[in-house]
Write a structure and sequence with these properties.
The protein is α/β, with parallel strands linked by helices. The chain has five helices and ten strands. 41% of the residues are buried.
């Protein structure tokens, strides 16, 4: 079963909706320039009392640990090595085949790879897909390291993405939003239903 991460959460109502609909992981943005940025205190309030067996992920550009953000996994954009006790999810922004060369360099420093669409200025959440044949090549390079697929996924295309790539998980932010930082709960439901159907 392909797992689902709902990212860019900013409030408890959306986090609880995602959890109730069956999301496996919830993502919180620790990049101040993002319209979905949340402070450590906000994350503490949001995750307080969430159901068990739900993974929380902090998305960061700089070294970070669980004493700052109360999460189990760090999703790391950046080239510097991350020193943390948290599990590490290394992000690769995919533009072309050359974008995949770096995967070979991080086999010993990442617990999983997340493939997102390359954008000149934004780190993610831009709502555009990339060529999924590159994700298939990334899976071959990664070997037994799990691949998470992101980038422009929506309730309308995620089933096709799952059938094509067979990723360990899919990651969505803007594709289930009413506006940046606020989720559309009907889109959340449709997205999770589409993943299950695939």
């Amino acid at each position: 079963m392909t797992r689902v991460k709902i990212c860019g959460l900013t409030n408890a109502e959306d986090a609880w909706a995602a959890a109730a609909l069956g999301a496996d992981a919830l993502g919180f943005i620790a990049v101040p320039e993002s319209p979905r940025f949340v402070s450590p205190e906000t994350v503490r309030q949001v995750v307080r009392g969430l159901p068990p067996f739900l993974t929380t992920v902090v998305v960061a550009r700089q070294p970070i640990d669980s004493s700052e953000y109360p999460c189990e996994v760090v999703q790391f954009y950046g080239g510097d090595e991350q020193t943390t006790a948290m599990r590490r999810l290394r992000v690769f922004r995919v533009k072309d085949e050359l974008s995949l060369l770096e995967l070979r360099d991080y086999h010993r420093t990442a617990d999983a790879f997340l493939l997102d669409t390359f954008h000149e200025s934004a780190l993610g959440g831009v709502g555009k897909t990339f060529d999924w044949s590159l994700a298939l090549e990334a899976k071959r390079i990664a070997g037994d390291i799990p691949i998470l697929l992101a980038g422009g996924l929506t309730p309308d295309n995620v089933a096709e993405a799952v059938r094509t790539v067979r990723p360990y998980a899919v990651d969505v932010s803007s594709g289930v939003e009413a506006e940046p930082g606020r989720k559309d709960h009907e889109k959340l439901r449709r997205f999770l239903d589409a993943v299950r159907s695939a």
